[in-house]
## 1
Amino acid sequence: MSRAGIESIDGPVVLVGHSYGGAVIGEAAGQEPNVKALVHVAAFAPAKGETVGALAAKDPGSHATPDALNPVPFDAGNGASGVDVHIKPDKYRDVFAGSLSARKANSLAAVPRPINAAALEETVTDAAWQDMPW
C-alpha cells in the first residue's frame, strides 16, 4: 500500500507483509501516524541502509538464494530493460509457502507474480519497525 493509501484510511491502520512485503510495509509506514502496528509473516525486516538481497544472503541457511530463482529478462521499451525473478516452481513451497500443503503451494507456484530483481537491491530508507513500540 502506498503512503497515500494509508493516509486515505480514517482510523488506525495495521499493515501486514509476507516475504519481500516486510520491507514494503516498513517503508510505507514511515512517518504515518495512523499506522499503529506492523505484522511480519515470514517476512524480511531490513534496517535502514540494508537491502533485502543482502539480508537474504546474510545468514547461512536461507532458502531465498539465487539458485531458487528463475531470472527472466524483460524489455520495457524506450531502451529500458531489466530482469524479473520468479521462484522456481520446485522451490516455491520451501522458499515461500512452507506452511501450506504441497497441493496449495503447487497451485500458487503455477501463477507466480515476479519481482524486479533491482527491487531486492534497493536500499531501505525507512524501517518503521525500528521506531514502533514493541
Note: The longest helix spans residues 21-29.
## 2
Amino acid sequence: MRVIIANSEREQEQIGQRLSQVVPARCLIYLTGDLGAGKTTLARGFLRGMGYQGSVKSPTYTLIEPYEIGHRRCYHLDLYRLADPDEIEFLGLRDMLQEEAVMLVEWPEQGQGALPPPDLLVRILYQDGGRELQLEAGTESGERLLKQFPDARRQKVKN
C-alpha cells in the first residue's frame, strides 16, 4: 500500500494527474471516501492529466460520464444513487469492462457483489485539514501501476 498526503485540493488534483501518467489503457480504479472527501477532485486531476480541458463534474445524477481524450477513453462512474447492485447491469458496465478504457468508480461499495475487483483501490480519508490517500493494488496490473507511480515529497510507503 502507498499512502500519500494531500494538503490542498490542488495537491489532490496533482496526485490524480500523476496517476493518469502511469495507468494502463485498461484499468479499473475504485475511489472511496466520505461525502466531500475529494473523489471527484482526484478524478478531475486524473482527467486533466490525460489532457481533458473541459469541465469535470461528479456524475452523481447521470451515473456515467464518458470521456474521449485523444486516443484514450475514460469512464467516470458515481454509484452513490444505486439502490441495488443489480442495477449495474442496466448501466452497460459489462461492455465497458471489455473496452480499452480506464474506469474511475466512485462509491463502488454500492455495487458490491456485481463489480469485479479493482486494479487499484484509492481510499480518501480526512486528515488535519488535508487528505490521506491510500493506494492499494488489487491485481497484478495494479501492482505494476503502483511500482511506476512517481514519488512525491510528502509520501510514505506502508507495507
Note: The chain is about 25% helix and 30% strand.
## 3
Amino acid sequence: MLENVLEFFRNLPKKKCATCGEPIEEQHECYGNHCDKCNNL
C-alpha cells in the first residue's frame, strides 16, 4: 500500500510558474506558484 502512495507522488508533474510556465524548483514547505525570476517580493 505504501508503495502505491509513493508511486503516486513520484508521478506527479512538476509544478510550473504561473507567470512564465517554467518548472519551479520546489521545496517541501513551499506553496508558491511563481519561479524565482517572476517572484516579486
Note: The mean pLDDT is 81.
